[in-house]
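Entry 12.
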Amino acid sequence: DALGLVADRFRTAIDTHGPGSVAFYVSGQLLTEDYYVANKLMKGFIGSANIDTNSRLCMASSVAGHKRAFGSDTVPGTYTDLEEADLVVLVGSNLAWCHPVLFQRLAAAKAERPEMRIVAIDPRRTATTTAADQHLAIRPETDVALFAGLLSALDHGGHTDAAWTTRHTTGAAEALAAAAPWTVEAVSAATGLASEAVAAFYEVFAGTERVVTVYSQGVNQSAHGTDKVNAILNAHLLTGRIGRPGMGPFSVTGQPNAMGGREVGGLANTLACHMELGDPEHRAIVAGHWNAPRVAAEPGLKAVDLFEAIHAGRIKALWVMATNPSASLPDADRVDAALARVPFLAVSDVVAATDTLRHATVALPAAAWAEKDGTVTNSERRISRQRAVLPLPGEA
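Predicted 3D structure (tokens):
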């Protein structure tokens, strides 16, 4: 009855108002197979790209920065690189709390090689900054200034790999010209750091070949997130410190399967296998593989825009899976008001009560991770196979 009601209400909305009147809001808590089939249903068979994910909030800046730098959403690092690096720079990442297993690996590597240095860049004092050799407590939103200054300092100090950069990159001259005004003094004024602290960071970065720069939500969740990502990537591209053991920029994701979602085109503007929604050839490949009648040709509504459309009454049926947008999205009160207005809301969750579930027309009991069978992909792009360890309860 429940599944029939969901299907009927979505069908009625599509027939009456078109495919753009329905949407899915999904989550980095899903397994890759869940993510894939939800995108296949919405983009290939309903014919709308109105499917976005809470990973939009934590990873969209990184996706866009990678595409701008590399032409694809590529994370050019592995967890082993952190253990092999001589300098690890943590930017906007409280690794000790948010990625504790990875932090333990880093701490063990430093205990084994005390000469390894850790620099933590974070406006706040955290468990991670207290474990670092240097804490740069920059003003919020001044990461671009700090890394633009680093780029300029690397150039002026002759710490570049001109042969590598010429062979593998374009735009170095333009990037350096844009970074030129960011002297140590200018960076100090912008970031609130002492000039000596800025210069010391630039010196250790310049003088250490094996550098890994780890960045996370303090970089991504920002109006300037994409520019922060590219400022970090540029420092590695100018020095050729990328794609080799113990060096490279490394985005660590905010959720257990944010990367798996990216692989299957989990965002409203992407397709499976990192293909482009706006590319007719890519759409044809996906349509053929899916035997899909109507692959969406236009990007759908991204997370924040989606809930604005719901608030405005343009979305008639919504399915929320494995997330709680009433609590987790920016401007949560407005999101909650939007969910109260949508004519039909299905919610799949593993718990009995959330702020979002209060508004559900249909609550679907979902399987939790330990009750499921499938795969996830971690930050270093490693796919993990998991099998259920608990039976499904009830009708989950």
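Annotation: The first helix runs from residue 2 to 17. The CA atoms of residues 134 and 238 lie 23 Å apart.
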